[in-house]
């Protein structure tokens, strides 16, 4: 009797109409910086072009379900006009979706904390063993493994447990990390018809969700920088918009350092996502010095000074430059050398994966 495989045409599994629209809606909400009405307008246009709905389930039915499931709130004013707001429940789902999109491989590996590169008398068991060394804590001795080792070493003779038979559980230190994520919201993030702010927001949301859910002992502060720099809350991320700003990299870095100085743990780092050159600084008298033509030496030198200052504080800066211009790359090279940090030159694709890999590496603590 012959056996084998039988192939047939792929048939897509039926999808709940709400779930189908909801996935698209979450993407549109990020693109529109949280503008519900604009996102729905885009959804209706997509529906007209791709027939996303049916007579049995329309866009209006979808909106009703969003309200009933607690994803949006509608407030009616006394004059009869209304305003629609996203709920915290939806904001969290948007961050979770960003995490799955950008760090999807991580989600498959399960949860846990980052470890250091050193073994020893740490605070987490690794599952491995090593030979006992003088000074090891007695509670780290694995009695079962040691007896098994003694039996193997004295096979055929009377069982004797010696110091050479002792095995201890390997441990590793779990270090805490304080991270400041800087996001460039200067006008160039939407210049030339290319949307760079949406992927940057997605990365920020994914990293925020990663830290808050997987590494609760860590801290994450988020700041944006244009002409000036200011902190934003986690819930503000979907609503970030690019302004008519220059790029005051110095202000962003100084604010990041001020935040990290107040953190008690010793492991600190800065991530900076930017697509353009520094073009603005604020003088001591409050006036702005701006120059968008090339790289201004006065502005650039102040960037280098802050980079050196961060180096003295043992705070590495990892720059993710979303630009391919050779003269900008030279600037980032010099900036990175001044800080002894890291730099990645990248398009928008793969940005999130690189940020996670560097986050994982930077927060490991070497112990002597």
Automatic annotation (TrEMBL):
Gene3D superfamilies: von Willebrand factor, type A domain. Residues 179-277 form the VWFA domain. Residues 116-127 have a biased composition (Basic and acidic residues). Residues 107-129 are annotated as: Disordered. It comes from the Bacteria. Pfam families: VWA_2. This is VWFA domain-containing protein. It comes from Flavobacterium aurantiibacter.
